[in-house]
Design a protein that fits this description.
The chain is of the alpha+beta class. It contains eight helices and 15 strands. The strands form three sheets. The chain has an eight-stranded mixed beta sheet with strand order 1-2-13-10-15-7-4-3. A five-stranded antiparallel beta sheet has the order 8-9-14-11-12, with no helix packed on it. Helix 1 links the parallel strand 1 and strand 2. The chain is globular.
Length: 341
């Protein structure tokens, strides 16, 4: 693997305050080239994010015995301890050195899983935050459908969003709190590259789209460029330095890439923190999945049809086995945690 180069300065920063063809075209172009983009005017305030990050810090600083009471299981809900995730089995000798807390879908403001004591009083806040993340994902999915020119008679801008409707059944959607503790001086057991330490191994995401919320002074995200080099993704890209909150990073997951026959890229990425950085890193990810029974067949888009006929497109995108969203997710989770399917 190549060490990281200079920061990516070509990722688009897109204003998503409006749902229209211009924004749809912008978001499609960005996702087709890089698989990653930033969105601003997303509706979250600095106070909103400060509050949810405060809850995250409270949870991760709580005793291990408390977190152990809600340890993660095959349903992908609960606390993930350090070293328990292997996202790159081919290259990893041990799991990632990070902690995570996964929340599945809330129903009526209530979590459908055990919660740690520090989180129980804040259940409704977590539910509201998850709902707002889902609402933003629906907006983005509508823009993707517009950009892909899905005709009204085929579903139009609602083609994706209708398949992410919680009223139609459960999904693998996850709200995830993440914590990367600052490394001690004796961090020799970690995968190292130059002056960096890999904290989350190279991987693509499982679902349709991912939202990533970051803190201003806590870098670490890197993406693999088309030339197979690693490049840091700035928390505040050029032109957003005066925004009250960092723009949200959005990336395409495997499901959306499959759906679009590779038109939208599911890009390899990792978290690689500079050794000189002595600050803990906290981030929040929202993994948006379609309803579990959704079949991952190509969408009725002229752009997708053209991609299927393009001999330069990868064969596994053109002739992939049709899976449901649930089947695809279980395969990926089994590989990550070593569970039986």
């Amino acid at each position: 693997m190549q060490p990281a180069s200079s920061p990516v300065d070509q990722l688009s920063v897109i204003d998503v305050s409006r749902i229209d063809s211009h924004t749809g075209d912008q978001i499609l172009e960005a996702a087709s080239k890089w698989g990653f983009l930033y969105v601003r005017n997303h509706g979250f305030t600095a106070e909103d994010l400060d509050r949810i990050f405060d809850l995250s810090r409270q949870f991760f600083k709580s005793p291990r015995e408390e977190k152990q009471k809600c340890v993660i299981g095959p349903d992908d809900k609960g606390w993930s301890a350090p070293y328990s995730e292997v996202l790159d089995p081919e290259h990893q000798q041990q799991g990632d050195f990070k902690e995570a807390m996964n929340f599945g879908e809330f129903i009526g403001g209530k979590a459908q899983q055990p919660l740690a004591e520090s989180l129980v009083p804040h259940e409704s806040e977590l539910s509201e935050f998850a709902d707002r993340c889902h609402d933003l994902c629906i907006r983005l999915l509508q823009l993707f459908a517009i950009g892909l020119k899905v005709r009204d008679e085929d579903g139009g801008e609602s083609w994706f969003s209708s398949r992410h409707d919680p009223s139609k059944g459960p999904s693998g959607t996850i709200l995830r709190l993440l914590y990367y503790s600052a490394l001690k001086a004796s961090g020799s057991e970690f995968i190292k590259e130059a002056d960096e330490v890999i904290r989350t191994a190279a991987h693509t995401d499982f679902g349709a789209i991912t939202l990533l919320f970051q803190r201003p002074s806590q870098p670490g995200l890197e993406i693999q460029t088309p030339s197979s080099k690693w490049a840091p993704v700035d928390v505040y890209p050029a032109g957003t330095e005066n925004d009250t909150v960092p723009p949200i990073v959005v990336n395409i997951g495997d499901l959306l890439s499959y759906w679009t026959a590779g038109v939208l890229r599911s890009t390899m990425h990792r978290v690689c923190i500079p050794k000189k950085n002595k600050e803990d890193r906290y981030s929040i990810a929202f993994f948006c999945h379609p309803v579990a029974t959704t079949e991952l067949t190509p969408i009725p888009s002229p752009l997708v049809s053209a991609a299927k006929d393009d001999a330069s497109k990868p064969e596994d995108n053109k002739k992939a086995q049709v899976l449901t969203a649930a089947e695809h997710l279980q395969k990926r989770l089994a590989a990550t945690y070593g569970w039986d399917t």
